[in-house]
């Protein structure tokens, strides 16, 4: 069975046979990009079910996986999310209004703001991450465990070679 990338590569092989040996990278990377679209559709569906934006879920998941007391500085989010300070403030405002997070100010430095997951926020994050992972599992279920490990190892190797070794 052929996928869309097989058809595109075949067209290039016909039109530019001199590039046939160079098509492997395009075929792999284009499939990764197409998978990104599939994952985004899944994630957007989850967001719609929960009434939250993708950035808000990212925020919740970051807080939840940080461990007790589920608190991080606004600056840490700014660095991790690669968005403006205003965008972080807006997300925190929306999430605070929904009872998912609360701002905590250090008594010694009123300028220092921490964002803490509320119990409600923790419950939402726990439910959402379970649903999110079930969706991923369903999407990749066509592969057996050895195939998943091979794909994961290959992609990890590419990411490491490109310097993508940190989450910040």
Helix content: 55-70%
H-E string: HHHEHHEEHH
Most strands sheet: 3 strands, antiparallel
Approximate strand percentage: 5-15%
Number of strands: 3
Cα distance spanning the termini = 39 Å
Structural class: mainly alpha
What this model shows, in words?
The protein has helices at residues 4-15, 23-50, 54-65, 74-81, 85-97, 119-140, 145-161; strands at residues 71-73, 101-105, 113-117. Helix 1 runs antiparallel to helix 2 (23-50) and helix 3 (54-65) packs across helix 6 (119-140). It is built from seven helices and three strands, in the order H-H-H-E-H-H-E-E-H-H. The protein is mainly α and 168 residues long. A three-stranded antiparallel sheet has the order 1-3-2.
Give me a quick take on this structure.
The protein has 168 residues and is mostly helical. It has 7 helices and 3 strands.
């Amino acid at each position: 069975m052929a996928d869309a990338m097989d058809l595109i590569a075949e067209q290039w092989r016909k039109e530019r046979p001199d590039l046939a040996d160079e098509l492997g990278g395009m075929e792999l990377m284009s499939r990764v990009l197409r998978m990104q679209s599939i994952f985004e559709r899944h994630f957007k569906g989850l967001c719609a079910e929960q009434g939250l934006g993708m950035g808000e879920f990212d925020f919740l998941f970051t807080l939840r996986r940080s461990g007790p007391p589920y608190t991080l500085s606004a600056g840490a989010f700014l660095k991790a999310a690669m968005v403006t300070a205003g965008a972080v403030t807006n997300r925190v405002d929306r999430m605070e209004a929904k009872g998912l997070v609360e701002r905590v100010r250090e008594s010694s430095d009123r300028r220092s703001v921490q964002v803490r997951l509320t119990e409600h926020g923790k419950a939402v994050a726990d439910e959402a991450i379970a649903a999110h992972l079930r969706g991923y599992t369903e999407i990749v279920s066509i592969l057996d465990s050895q195939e998943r490990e091979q794909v994961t190892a290959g992609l990890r190797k590419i990411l490491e070679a490109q310097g993508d070794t940190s989450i910040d």
